[in-house]
# Entry
Amino acid sequence: MSRIKKLFDKKKQDILSIYFTAGFPALEDTIPVLHALQEAGADMIELGVPYSDPLADGPVIQRSGSRALANGMSIATLFEQLKEFRNEIHIPVLLMGYMNPVMQYGFDRFCQEAATLGIDGLILPDLPAMEFETEFGKIIRKAGLDFVFLVTPETSDQRVKKLDELSSGFLYAVSSSSTTGKHAVLDNQEVYFRRLRGLRLKNPVMIGFGIRDRQSFYSACRQAQGAIVGTAFIEAMEKEGSGDIGTRCKNFIQSLR
Amino acid sequence: MNNTVIIKYNAGNIRSVLFALERIGAEALVTDEPEKILSAERVIFPGVGEASSAMDYLRERKLDQLITGLRQPVLGICLGLQLMCKHSEENDTACLGIFDEMVRKFNPGTARDLKVPQIGWNTISGLRTALFEGVDENSYCYFVHGYYAATGSDTIARTGYILPYSSALHRKNFYGVQFHPEKSADTGERILRNFMKIQ
# Structure
């Protein structure tokens, strides 16, 4: 059974997943941040593979990716850093990135090496479902990796069901690119999450947007199995003079729980 | 006369624009019928594509003359803005000439870490006109482009990428934005709302 499945079997609620960019703030911070997050009580990690054109990310994560690339981060460097991480990191870790660098590295090789290192799953927002079905899905499955698709409020019921069918591990629910003022957002989101619950999906749902603090975390957790925090965490890491990396991670997780 | 029209042509990114308008409670008709464009309250001229083939398409259908003659608020997006300029270096294309500015290709030169095209979030500043009412200086917008409009008298927003360029232009009833408001989260939504209020 996959580490991700085990997590969702064991823990049904309030699952906290943290996104961070590999090689950020400094190239050698990847492993210390993984450790600090596990120790601080994160349930799962999405480790971002930096890319120059991160089309599914906002300015904060784009900036962290540019900095990581400037630091010299690459897939080869990341895999080198991850060589022994499973000796001490026991929570599920997914790689989140884009097709371009993965294709350049070699899709097969990327999946096999990631799985060998102990990576549990992949999130590649620009891998279309059709290409997943016809070509890439079987490579991912063969490597034994989970694969997570994203859905938005604009994804039709039929399409959500299809993406749920193709996903394993969990389904990633993001918002539309725009929001319409606080109250409208709440109403719209509630309609969206109710719709997702009504579809009786096979995968647990994780909510991944606009979660910045305890209140937004627990309000997302009322609608799904858990939530993903990315931008707010990167912003906390960017703050200079707020303690070492470990302290910053710990303080941030404590502010959510 | 109480409607918004999105001009249908061979270089569209129409779906996201429609969704963005829907989110702010506005409906739009996608059409290339002259009467409907002429009678619209406001017109959106979107575009993702290549300049010369888009201009050929517009000329064949005489949409070029129709667009330049419009009197209602018009918003060009991305290639839409570039086609509203005088000339584009993209396949040496004569454009609509609504704005005086020229469209040039980004030349990374010594800025080796800056790739072309620019894809991603960047800031807008020096904001002028009602289009940017309530939008903070240095707000982030989403860009995807390899050509840019130079700065000039019609510039109402600037962005720096390799060099400072026009991220928005304005002349009379015509507005153009180089970024994609439909992909620019809250800021983009505010800009679309502002456009929908311009008389």
Observations:
- The two ends of chain B are 12 Å apart (CA to CA).
- The interface with chain A takes residues 19-20, 23-24, 113, 115, 119-121, 140, 182-186, 188-189 of chain B (CB under 8 Å).
- Residues 181 and 188 of chain B are 4 Å apart (CA to CA).
- The mean pLDDT of chain B is 93.
